[in-house]
Amino acid sequence: MGKRLLEQKQRIDRERLYPPREAIELLKALDGAKFDESFEVHVHLNVDPRKADQLVRGTMMLPNGTGKSQRVAVFAVGEKAAEAEQAGADVVGAEDLASRVQNENFMDFDVAVATPDQMATVGRLGQILGPRGLMPNPKSGTVTMDVGRAVEEIKRGKIEYRVDRYGIIHGIIGKKSFDTDSLVQNYFALRDELVRARPAAVKGRYVKSITVTTTMGPSVKVDPAVERE
């Protein structure tokens, strides 16, 4: 552990549950890395991801975006390919794009979108895209005929969330350069979305813990019970 991170950890009360705003302000006040770090939220849910009726997954728009520019690849032909290009897609193709991914290891994109008729082609890339979390999926809105809207929403900051095998949701709510109000608004938007997505099969306490951190900073425990200001 670096000396800077160790010193920062000592400024945080490890036993305290901080109000979200105070936690965010504390992290913003700490000396950071030379780049604009991301603000991360990690929400531990009382779910068993191995059970289909307890899987928490969805998409949402953060009110202030993530601060990250997403590169979008679209698998489409004809009018839908033109629609994707007009909406700002970074790369558009069909068999030709699939061939680049499969044979040239082309992976210069953060999100993949496909029209339903292209899923047979995209399906061949499952072993490449799947492990990277890039496989288009109807549940996340990335398999759609409305490719223009999908691209625009992703570019504006639409995020996908999915519980991991440990029952934890990992999300980015912005950059350290964001003002505190914007980060607080994004935090509550994500938290409230996860509360709405609570599976009916989950009994008892749903949110076990929440921590916020920055890319290179320490973690701060947040009080899940604190409501919007």
**Radius of gyration (Å):** 19 Å
Helix share, percent:
25-40%
Gap from first CA to last CA:
36 Å
Describe the main β-sheet briefly: 4 strands, antiparallel
User: What number of domains?
Assistant: 2
| CATH fold name of the largest domain | Ribulose 1,5 Bisphosphate Carboxylase/Oxygenase
**CATH architecture descriptor of the largest domain:** 2-Layer Sandwich
- In N-to-C order, the SSE pattern is HHEEEHEHEHHHEEHEE
Which geometry do the CA atoms define? globular
- Please report the total strand number as a whole number: 9
Q: What's the mean pLDDT score?
A: 92
Total number of helices: 8
> Would you tell me the structural class of the helices and strands?
alpha/beta
CATH class of the largest domain: Alpha Beta
Low-confidence stretches: none
Strand content: 15-25%
Query: What is the assigned CATH homologous superfamily of the largest domain?
Result: Ribosomal protein L1/L10, rRNA-binding domain
Keywords: Repressor, Ribonucleoprotein, Ribosomal protein, RNA-binding, rRNA-binding, Translation regulation, tRNA-binding
Subunit structure: Part of the 50S ribosomal subunit.
GO biological process, one term: translation
Pfam families: Ribosomal_L1
